[in-house]
Amino acid sequence: MFPVSAGLMVMAVILILLYPMWRRSKTALIVGDEAALDEERVDLQIEKESLLRTLSDLEVDYAQSKVSAGDYGRLKLGHEHRLVEVLDRLDALAGIGLVPPKSKKSQSAPRGPSAVFIGLLGLILIAAASGMYQLVQWKLERQQLAAAGEGAAAMPPINPAEMVARLEERLKKNPNDLQGQLMAGRSYTALQRWEDAGKAWRKALELDERNDAA
Fold it and tell me: Whole-prediction pTM value?
């Protein structure tokens, strides 16, 4: 759960940081398109005026019999066809909604990130830091639990016979050890070594007749 949330937070931070760059690139693309359309519009206006002038000159030449009727019809048809194409394209460009040009003051002073954007970015960074901290704590807890489990698994099981053997060695060195005799009595009883258990209890009574455990 924590790795997923931390990853989502990091992705959100990256997207927010890249968003202003994407907006600037998009704005630059729009400005570039406007410049290309303006250039095309100017070229079409020049071509339109040239075609109108050519058609006017063609009418004069035909009236003065400088061109034959066949050439006149062919040239006029070609120029008029091209003029219609130019006019249609100009009408299409006029229908395209362009962003009005900004003033020099607004162009010279680029806008910085808004306060809302900065505040949102700060909140996301805080949330991401908190998520990373929780992730680290979660990993540490898992490592501690795993280490504790390995330690418990590594501990050998208790062998009652081995424990009794150690206790007997202890009592050989110090037979007057009251607590040792009591432990021996309990251990022998658990192992159903009744005779040894009786000896241990009697020895404990000799050491302390008022001991209720014996």
Answer: 0.34
Torsion of CA 17, 22, 23, 27, to 10 degrees: 150
Q: Which helix (H) or strand (E) holds 109?
A: none
Query: Residue 9 is part of which domain span?
Result: 2-130
Query: Do 192 and 102 share a structural domain?
Result: no
Tokens standing for 122? Answer: 């700060």
On whether both 73 and 32 belong to a single domain, the answer is yes
Q: How far is CA 7 from the centre of its chain?
A: 4
Question: Which residue carries 């505040």 as its tokens?
Answer: 119
Residue 152 lies in a domain: no
Q: Is 106:1 a contact under the CB 8 Å cutoff?
A: no
pLDDT in tens, 57-90: 989 988 998 889 889 889 989 989 999 999 988 8
